[in-house]
Amino acid sequence: MRLLDILNLPTFKEAAVVAGEEGLTKNVQSVNLMDAPDIIDYLNDEQLLLTTAYSIKNNPNALIELVTQMANQGCAGLGLKTKRFIDEIPTEVIDQANALNFPIIEIPLNYSLGEMLNEALGCILKERTHELNYALNIHREFTDIVVSGGGFSNIIESLATILSLPVILLNYRLDIMAYSHEIDKDVFFDIYWHIHEKIHHENLDTYKVLTIPNEEGTNEFTEVSIYPINTTNQQKGYIIIFGTTLSNESSFTLAVEQAANVISFEFMKLHALEQHSRRLKNEFFADLVEGAIPSEDEIINRGKTYHLNKSLQYICITCKMDDASELYQNSHPLQTEKEISLRRDRIYEFFESVLTKKFENCIVFTKGDLFTTLLGFEFYNDDSEKNVLESITDLQSDLYQAIDSSMSFGISNYTENITDIPTAFQEAVDALRAGYRENKKRFIKTYRIKELAEIFKTIPSQKLKEFYRSTLRELAYPKDKEKEDLVQTLSVFLNHNCQISETAKIMFIHRNTVIYRIKKCEEILGLEIKGSDETLTLRTALFIRSFFNNKIEKQVL
Predict the structure, then answer these.
(1) Which of 147, 165, 175, 503 is most buried, by the most CB atoms less than 10 A from its CB?
(2) CA-CA-CA-CA torsion for 146, 148, 152, 153, nearest 10 degrees?
(3) Which ranges carry the PucR C-terminal helix-turn-helix domain (predicted)?
């Protein structure tokens, strides 16, 4: 209820507004009656105070301070009863209230403050009851739509009818989930990027109004309202209302809030169904890639649900978050688990959204901490491989930009038979491991028929160790942190084509530090790290180091 409406009540009709007339449109949530000197400590937002000013009757400065504090606290106004303890309101108090657009109402002696308080509170209570009944009716209307089998489209259409404005529902990826029939899609896409920028550059947790630039008169709508829809696990969508809204009207806000409540429950129900379906899918493909399904017929029969086709050649792509271990360093494990779960859900949905649009036969599932994709082709050739690599490169970049997740990928060879999918999965995992063994991040590695590690397995271990020790010398078995830093810097330096700036960027150190460490390595190794022969020799020695992993690090030959 506005302060202006309260002044129209019978007990307030003879009251006079002496200051802050521009603030009469303020909302009044409650009315307080008090004369205590520390009254400011007991006042709330949008509250009207009625007082005789008895406690500060001989202190005009205290009245100015009270007006200033009430304005700063967001109170609705001050009703002063004169001719009792103060004859008139001081001019300096009125001037201060006008400067702050804070209403001061002079109350005559006709009615007691108690009568005025009771009438104002009764009116506010009556309006709140009306709003509650309205909210219940609106909620019942939206709930009936859901119970009768109606989905997002019916809810949005009903909301648009209530508001008499076009409405669109977006999910958290800003995909259109539903829209009212008045929406012109071309008009919507003209202003879509304004909405996109607003949502992605601000943490929207409350209602926002977006003004759309309309310099050439090309947009039908110059104002858009964005209402976020939140669920218990994450923000799942936005209600977009086109046109000038009446957001200051309680009925308008209540209608949108009730629609958002019902939609949030629908989002949670949809999420639960998706999680159940995803779990069954993951269980089937976990059995498949582990070789736990004994026959081709069973693979085909169980795989029909997921459009697994025995006539296609499949490649397997495995993917992992590079920074997953860093996320677990949080001191609040339960919060960390929740954040990781939410991020994994977003990555999974991002995979499905992007890859299913680019490839006709695409199956995404998870196994442990691996995001896994099967892509099917009638005939897998060089063009297909090039298309896959380009798509995965784009996906990797998009994931980093949109979700701030560093992801690495391993890609298998293609299968000749559907029963070879477990082999393809293992090849993709091996390719991923090979990239991590080389201390890489955000890489895309394709499995080759015979990886370098397999070739080294054919060489006697003693020969490899001798080559490793003679090449790296003192750096072969670093005994202090300084030499460990030298080895790490040398490895990153070689893996990034001997680029000093790139090495410094990857290791988060100054480029002069890189230059110093590389020169130190050259002194220890007795060579200049310039030619292709030297770098190949060192890269081979460092690969042997990663190949043996911890087996040779502390061994004394």
Answers:
(1) 503
(2) -150
(3) 486-542
